[in-house]
Recover the amino acids of this structure.
């Protein structure tokens, strides 16, 4: 946690920052809920909108991997800036000082269309299925982007990557395990570390680093064309890294329509099944730890603990 916790940005200060960045005097501000980092929608007279993000309140407990998301998103947008078929939004401003808003902030855009969470209640089951299929197609295109090494995208700016997916995955899992240990959550920590070590060979079968968005599928993150029922982009690329695309949360419990859009899902051979259970282990562990750090009433922890138990049982039975 930063030594000087960010204060809540003043709306007038946000408006001035938006006007300067977008070179427009007509910028309306709307604070959005449902996001870890504080988000404001900046709307101009041109019909597009932009997103301004600042750090969470100092009362919000962050996990290790949730720090530095503004810088991570800026890097992701730069990496994807040559792919207009994937990302129409661009990095407008990254200000890592606290002088202007009392917190570092990022502005990205322009975004066309609607945030899926805003329009979902008004859509028919057929429209929702079309959007799920379109999301699968979008993720397939994202997954085609190759990187130089496994690990953070920021390795292109001097951060060392790894040539081992097994090592990278173990490092990512270890970060969440330590968050759980710090909070004294009752979990089988050493058993989880052990199953990752025992299934290292299955992870090492992944040799080509590809673009992964770890946290992709939330309705608040997906931008859609509500008339044509298709996905046009994402609101947040901060969880991007180079790894195995099947680790993304959109493969945690995919719908049939998503699977139709993406194509073949990884449930064929033994190594694929082992990797998928390892990824279920990661996401269910993350859900349990996150619930402890930031309690909610959505019942996520109980289901996540069941998934965690199932993954551990399958991985223990399938050990080599």
């Amino acid at each position: 946690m930063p030594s000087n916790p960010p204060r809540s940005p003043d709306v007038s200060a946000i408006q001035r920052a938006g006007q300067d960045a977008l070179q427009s005097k007509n910028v309306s501000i709307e604070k959005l809920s449902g996001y870890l980092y504080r988000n404001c929608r900046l709307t101009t007279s041109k019909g597009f909108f932009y997103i301004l993000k600042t750090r969470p309140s100092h009362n919000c407990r962050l996990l290790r991997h949730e720090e530095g998301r503004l810088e991570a998103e800026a890097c992701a947008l730069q990496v994807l800036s040559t792919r207009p078929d994937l990302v129409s939004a661009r990095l407008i401003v990254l200000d890592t000082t606290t002088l202007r808003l009392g917190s570092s902030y990022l502005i990205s855009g322009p975004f066309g269309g609607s945030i899926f969470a805003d329009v979902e209640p008004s859509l028919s089951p057929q429209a929702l299925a079309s959007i799920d299929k379109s999301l699968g197609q979008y993720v397939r295109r994202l997954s085609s982007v190759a990187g130089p090494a496994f690990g953070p995208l920021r390795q292109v700016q001097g951060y060392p990557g790894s040539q081992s997916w097994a090592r990278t995955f173990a490092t990512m899992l270890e970060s969440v395990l330590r968050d759980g240990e710090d909070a004294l959550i009752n979990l089988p920590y050493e058993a989880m570390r052990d199953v990752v070590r025992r299934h290292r060979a299955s992870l090492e079968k992944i040799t080509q680093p590809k673009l992964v968005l770890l946290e992709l599928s939330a309705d608040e993150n997906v931008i859609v064309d509500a008339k044509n029922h298709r996905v046009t982009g994402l609101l947040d690329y901060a969880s991007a890294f180079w790894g195995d695309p099947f680790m993304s949360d959109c493969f945690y419990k995919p719908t049939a329509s998503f699977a139709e859009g993406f194509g073949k899902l990884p449930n064929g051979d033994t190594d694929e099944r082992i990797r998928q259970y390892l990824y279920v282990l990661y996401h269910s562990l993350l859900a349990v730890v996150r619930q402890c750090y930031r309690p909610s009433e959505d019942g996520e922890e109980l289901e996540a603990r069941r998934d965690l138990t199932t993954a551990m049982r399958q991985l223990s039975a399938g050990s080599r």
